[in-house]
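By way of example, we now present a protein record of this kind:
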Amino acid sequence: ESVYYEEIYRLMTVDGLTDLNNKRFFVETIEKEISRCKRYERTFSLVLFDIDHFKRINDTHGHLAGDAVLRQLGTLVKSKVRHTDVPARTGGEEFAIVLPEVKRDGAIVMADKLRRSVEEATFRFEGTHIGVTLSLGVAEWIPTIENGDELVKQADERLYEAKRSGRNLVCAS
């Protein structure tokens, strides 16, 4: 019986395509982290990222190629995070990683490692090589940040700054 409920929970909290956590699980995780950090006077960081020119990948190679890129990115992200980190797919080509106990500088290092490994990775679909880069935004939680939405908004603003500044970049608040 417990196996059944575990599977139901997994289906409710995991994104089927990338095998990362889904948006719902991500939102829950952020709220939990905020209350933990308030209680114990700890900190954590958030990395938001998306795939540069994803629409172009879909338009050029088709949606199946887009799905293949998302799936391969999911695998790569999983291989780059610590077991305590929480990677999630939060939208179409949008992703997040919650980094418990990591300050801003550590999050920047992690985000840039991920950026580099994606840039250097070979994404393939039916023999075609597809170049992929990410734009990433980093924000560290501080006690004046009341809720998850506020933190996400900060990281999101940094993500857009990375886009505006030429993409394939990490920007941090």
